[in-house]
Each structure stands twice: as C-alpha cells, then as structure tokens.
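Example: 6-phospho-beta-glucosidase.
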Amino acid sequence: MGFRKDFLWGGATAANQCEGGYDKDGRGLANVDVVPIGKDRFPVISGQKKMFEFDDEHFYPAKEAIDMYTHYKEDIALFAEMGFKTYRLSIAWSRIFPKGDETEPNEEGLKFYEDMFKECKKHGIEPLVTITHFDCPMHLVEKYGAWRSRELVGFYENLCNVIFKRYKGLVKYWLTFNEINMILHAPFMGAGLYFEEGDDVEQIKFQAAHHELVASAIATKIAHEVDPENQVGCMLAAGAYYPYSPKPEDVWASRSDDRENYFFIDVQSRGEYPAYALKEMERKGIEIKMEEGDKELLKAHTVDFISFSYYSSRVSTTDPELLEQTEGNIFASVKNPYLEASEWGWQIDPLGLRITMNDIYDRYQKPLFIVENGLGAVDTPDENGYVEDDYRIDYLAAHVQAMRDAVDEDGVDLLGYTTWGCIDLVSAGTGEMKKRYGFIYVDRDNEGNGTLKRSKKKSFDWYKKVIETNGEDLSN
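Written out as structure tokens, the predicted fold is:
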C-alpha cells in the first residue's frame, strides 16, 4: 500500500514571504508589502490600524524577504536535489498587474514567472501555483476598498485569463485563494480589508468573502476552459477542533468552530451556501448582496480537489475559566493539556492531522492535497551554516506517518504533500526570520541583516530520503 506511485512530494512558499524585489521590473505595491514586523503587525493585518505605505519607524520584511527574485534558480536546484516532484509557489498579483485594474499586464512580471516555471520543469518539478496568497495590489485597496468591492471580481478574472493562457502547458495544478478563511481572522493581510470607525465589520467581511467565492468559481471555469488538463483546488487553514470535555456544550462549540472554517470550502466544493451559514448570517443581520447568476456560477464550477494547511489541532470550550489561549497561527485556541507545544506555542498533534484529513475527506469525498505543514523553530547554525534540526525531522516524520495512516488505514485519497517554508522565509504571522521552517538555512535575521547565503540543514538529506522511498523510510 502506502502513497500512490505518482505522489507529489515537495515544499511550499509564498511570493510575499520569499520573493522580495518589491519594486523591481514594474511591480506595484501590495497589501502584504506594507505589513511591518513588531507590535503594530497584528493591528495592521487585522485591518484595525491603517498603514498603506512605508514609514521610517518600522521594518517591512517582505520588501526584500530572502530575495528569491534573484536567487530562484539556485533555490529550485536545491529543491531538485532533494527530489521534489512539485513546488508550491504563488504569483504576486502586483507583478502581473501593478495597480490591479489595468487592461494590459506587465510583460516583465509575466516573463519572471514563466522563467520560474520553466526552471521547475527543467528539473522535473511540477509547479503548484497559488493565484492569490494574500496579495492584493494597494491601488485596489485604496481606490476600491479591496475585496469589499464587487469590481475586484472582474480584476481577478482578468488576472486569471492572462495567467491561464500564458502558462498553459507549464502549470496544471492551481489554487485560487490561500487560506480563504483567513479573511475572518486577518482581513487586511488576507484580503486587503481595512475598517473605518463605524463600519459594520462582519457585513464587510462576509460580503468580501462572497466576492472571493464568486471569483474562485470564475477562476475554476476559466482554468477548465483554457486547458481541460488543469486541476483547480481551494485552500483552507485547517485543524480539527476538539471539545475540551464530553460536556455537550463543549461538543457543540467544537462543531460550530469547525463549521466556521468549513463554510468557505462547503461553497467551493459543494457549490452552495450551507444552511447553517445562512442561519448564522441571518442571526448576525448579515445580508449577502448577490448578483444574478452568482448561485449558478458557484454550483457549476466547484473545485477538483481540496488543499489545506495543517499545523495543529485546536480546542473548543464554553467554560470561561479555561480560556487560556495558545498562540496558534492567528487562530487562538484553548490549550490542550495532552499536547506538547512549539517555541511559538503551537500545539504539536500528528494524530490531529489524520483526524483532520478524515473529517475533510468524509465531508467532501474529493482528493486532498496537504500544501502546508511544518515546524517553526529557532535554528542555530554552525560556522558553515549547518543546522542539526532533529526536532524538525521528528515533527515531520510523525506527521508523514499520520498522513500514511490516513491513506493506508482509512482510505483517504491524497494527491501530495508540500511542507511549509521548504527554504527559510519570513513568517506570515509574526514577520520574523528567526521562526524558521526550512530544509535550507538562509543567512538573514529579523532586522534584515545577513548575507542571504543558502546552506543545507540536516533535514535536507532526511527529506531527500523520504521522497526517494515514497514515504517508506522516515528514520532519522
């Protein structure tokens, strides 16, 4: 048994966390560029603090990141050395359409990604491309209010038309929006949403979500029309919620928390708004403005597969005494007394991955693709940049084993697995470089100092062996 013969092993990055080159070759400014590191980061990413341009008081890590813009050939060669079958990367919208609302794309931006995809193909690596990994051109934020405006659906459609045609034959696996449910938790980072005093925040978030869901359906439609070989997936920030106790109220709280996350995928995978979501919106006084044809579009153009990120499980309770929160990935949760945690307070739960896979597969009966999973940790390199990261190997081995159990024991259909941050990059949550995920160490710190030199960690050779044996040999 084990994983399918054509299992897509690889790693994942996002343009805004690794590319840099924020002002090179005609690229425009994006929401993800103007998010600083430090105490103002969360107020900015949550849409509470207005920061639409750079200032001198803050450091903006995405401006340069790890400069993959100029290092991509070297980086892809290292991925190939590990044996990657796929590499998940994202397109920076403002590289293709600097303002977002132009009719004609920026040729230099298109050429950059074409070269990158060709470099992948040269090494036998299948690109898995996220169309929007939190990116939104700042011009669209300032002029239209980002995804709160219906006009963004048309701009996104324009982007999709251009990239699907240009990269036909180079890319066949696509994701429409990264962690689409992040719009509820970090709306400026996730969708460029900023809130003025007096705004109906819930109404704006759900209306913006509807626009993204319609845009996702349109993207799926165009992808299939341009190339029937194209496979389009949605993408969810996943992690099952456990009830803190068998108390029925806690069980119900966990169901409700799960549903908040699954709502988006229910629409993208099943093609309609679920009854529970409509009732919840009714209770909150949220009225989704739909245009004629929206429902038909959502129904006719559902995704081919479900992709998701998994870092940890979460816990739900109704007991106010227990609401001591963990730090987990923007999604705070009650602490689980049975689990160890990472240095950033994320709870480590490999079995939770198997549980989450089963929950999602039972719910949708579509192939799954795990496109983010990994351990953020402080790495201490020796003088050659070598890191003995056994803690990362242990974490990943346990998760790959859980994945295999879900496939072997439970019959879950799994297309592939891309670890998060296969090369060290800027953390989306905290903006730090010291929170490292990669098999490849990058010499850069939180303040932007360092040579950007790449070096292999111990986990590099370990992952190479995992891929070589198709997940059979997980030994350190």
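Residues 8-468 form a domain with the TIM Barrel fold (CATH 3.20.20.80).
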